[in-house]
Amino acid sequence: MNEAKLIALARSGSEVGIRELFHRFWPLAWQWAYAVLGDRMLADQAAQEAIAKAFQSLDRFDPQRPFAPWLKRIVVNRAIDDLRHERRRCSAERWAEMPAVIAVERDGDSLHATFEAVRALPSNQRLAIVLHYWLDFGVEDIARQLRTPVGTVVSRLSRARAAIRQHVEANDVF
Amino acid sequence: MSFDLERFVKDLRGALPYPSDDATRRALESVTASVRRPRRFPRRAASVAAVLVAASAGSFFAGRLTVPGNAHGAIPSAAAFVPFGGAAAARPIAVHCRVQTVYLKWDAGGRVQLLEYVWRIDLGRPVPTGRVVAYADNAARTVNPACTTATPIVPRTRDYDTANWDPHRHLELYCGEDVSATGFLIQIRPILNRAKQQIGNRVLVQDWRHRKAAPLLDARAEGRSSSIAARVQRCFKPVWPK
Prior knowledge:
The complex is a heterodimer of chains A (about 170) and B (about 240). Chain A has about 170 residues and is mainly α.
């Protein structure tokens, strides 16, 4: 079933439509939240609340447009809000589950060095990198979501790239 | 030396993990419930809930606090109690959560979850909303961002009994809100060994309005010892079918 039909079905209140739409987009929504928050528990919470909010607001969604970018904006907004409350949590390492997956990749060592470099970035630079490279947001979109000037986002990305390059080259894995 | 930075950073996306089955189930329940019932944090008359909670408290006396550990696939494991090596000593977390009923699930691996439940008058029992109020294990402690930070309390001496609790069984317990309907103070305090490594957690649940009284629930679990104390008029073992 194509996406527009599925959304129309879900909007009509069909449980089958709601379940199908949910299962199609939930893993993505969860990964977006996890990418921003870096914590499984927080991602569970943020993604769950964001996807519930999106389904509640289906009436306001334009079915002529793709669903994923709309949902992504809702999830990421919610995740960024939670990130601002991050001081309330005491957690182990950010993205704790990713190194195990990276280790078995073809370019494992290089990827691991890059991953550690991203993880070591200051929080505002790390978020800019995640939004731009992992979640495919443009700099204008990032600026809008973080409520900062475009120039600030560009500057954070630039500094982050320099820091990653420096970190990776210092580890001499290439 | 050449390093295609953008490609490697983008490739990291492939290592993002997937949601757990449990989180998926909770999210689906939340989505279907929210489509049917759009209000957030539904709150029914707290006084009715309190009456129902009190009426159900009798069941607490009838059985032990513990239920069989395999009910949720929890596998007792000594490894779960291994301290988080080299971690800095964690600080206590205290938050105010405006929830109607807190459902404590503490599994044999030392992982504690506080879930939000609401009373369904028509069913005569509390049902999950799908929200996790707080989670703690030996490596991480997190609380729902909807809860607001509070000042940690030093618990008063309890005026009720403390039960022994087998750490190789998991615990499930409800604590209902009182008639003031002001929610709960939830405090999670790490238990540290002499080397300042975390070996367990102590969880306190207290009426927000009566923060200076003895806690409703005071539970602790570490590697070889554990204990739980609860005010039986307000906290009770679930007696409903799963």
